[in-house]
Structure formats: structure tokens, C-alpha cells
Amino acid sequence: MVALNHNAFSTWEISGVQTRQRRSRLIDFVRVRGFASLDDLVRELGVSESTIRRDLDALEEQGMARRTHGGVLYAGGHARLAEFDERQPAHWAAKRAIAAAAAERIADGETVLLDGGTTTYEVARLLVGRSIQVVTNSLPVANLFASESRADLVLLGGYVSPRNGVCLGPYANELLGRLHVTTTVLSAAGIAEEGLFNAHLLLAETEQAMLRAAGRVIVVADSSKFGQRSLTLVSGLGAVNVYISDEGLPRRWRETIANAGAELVIAQVSEDDARPAGVATPTSRPA
């Protein structure tokens, strides 16, 4: 009986490894092409369509892929940049809920300007597959849309910060001065009574140009950012149309935002939001 249980456990382990390897091959295949049909995946991986569907369900839950009619789009893994590696796990559930609330407020056909924050990246992932025009100074965000046929992409040039993969400086600012977008979505290093703060002087100038280019400004910031100041002031609170935060935002800040004449949206954190994209959900048995 012990030997049988050991063999069963070994078989389960082997099957689990095979599943992870197959899913890694699948997402690499989709990443290169941007989109793949179910038939393409069946042929490439040599498994049944039902297995492919289970794999896609798992990868979509992890935030790596997005199912569409007849196939799957690459939704992008998280870029391996210091800014993302260090800050992504913090306040994860709030960030994902805030991103979902922001994406819901963006309509098809809009021109959307996205900066390089971690929460803004989550917004971008949710916009993959939508019929929009994207303007960004973020290389990770641009990578999400580079092979996306449904979206037009404009990447701002300039000096690239190796820490967070964003373009900034006079070239980016000059191009922004020629553009008008429907909605700008910004993150913030801190939000205080004076307004929005950023820790990088050049990036603050680029974000000021992003504000000037926008018909509507949405700031996505979890509640930990409020009451914090950083190196330089980007704008006053009243320069923003909509703030999206989480349930942890204190009442005094809700009143402060209302007094600034801005709309406040409180995102509701769900159980799914609490699980980081790229971390698989445990299952009782392999696919």
C-alpha cells in the first residue's frame, strides 16, 4: 500500500511538471505571435483541445493571457525591472481592484495615455484586446500592445530610466506638447494636501506634460499613497478629474478630494484581486 501511494505521488509530480512545461511553451508561443488560435495551439503542443482550454483558463487567471473568440491574446507577464520587482507585491489586492475600476471607465475608441507606474501597468493589462489608441512612455506598457492589432500604439521617446523602463526628458515632453488624448491615467509616488508628488524630477516634468495633453485625468493610487510627500510636486489636487483608490482611504481624504472638486471612486477588493498575476492557483490534481 505504501509503495502504491508513493508511485501515485510520483506520477502526480511528473504530471505537474509536464503541465507547467506545456503551459510555459504555450505562453511563449502566444507571446511571440501576440495571438494564437486554438487550432494553432493544438498543433504546436500536440495535445487535445480540452487540455488547451484548461491551460488557457489557468493562464488567464494568472494574468498571462486573455481569451478571445477562437483563440488567445498575450496579456503579458510583469516586466523584470527593479521598480516592478520591489513594489509590485505591496498592496497587491488594492492595485488590481483599482486597475479594474479604471479600465471600466475607459471606452472603446478612446485615446489613452498611460504612465509607467505599477498600478497603471495593471490598467494596461486589462485594456489589452480593446479597440483603443494607447500613448505611453513606459516600455513595459508598450510591450503589452506592440503586437496587438486592435490597438494603435504611440511610444514617447527620450531618455530611458533603467529602474522603471520609462522614457522621459525634453524629447518626450516635446512630443506630448503636440498631442491631445481623451484620458490620461497617472500613478503617484505620494498625494498630500498640496497635490501629487513624484520622486524623480525629470519624470515629474513629463507627467506635467501628460496632464496638459489630457481631456480627462484619472489618478490610480492605493490608500497608502495618501498623506505622503516625495521629492517634487507634480500638480495640485484640483488638476485631476477622478481619483481611484481602495477602501482603506481615510474619511478625511475622501472629504479633501471632494473639496478639490474631483470625483472619488472606491474600488472594492475581491478575493481574486488578492492573488498576484503570475502566481498559479493551487489545484487538487494536475490537468
What this model shows, in words?
- The protein folds into 2 domains: 2-74, Winged helix-like DNA-binding domain superfamily/Winged helix DNA-binding domain (Arc Repressor Mutant, subunit A); 82-273, Rossmann fold (3-Layer(aba) Sandwich).
- It has helices at residues 2-33, 38-45, 49-61, 82-87, 92-104, 118-127, 139-145, 170-176, 201-212, 251-259; strands at residues 35-37, 65-68, 71-74, 111-114, 133-136, 152-155, 159-160, 167-168, 181-186, 190-192, 195-198, 214-220, 232-235, 242-246, 263-267.
- The longest helix has 32 residues, at 2-33.
- The strands form 4 sheets. The protein has a 7-stranded parallel β-sheet with strand order 6-5-4-9-12-14-15, sandwiched between helices. Strands 1-3-2 form a 3-stranded antiparallel β-sheet.
- The chain contains 10 helices and 15 strands.
- It is an alpha/beta fold and 287 residues long.
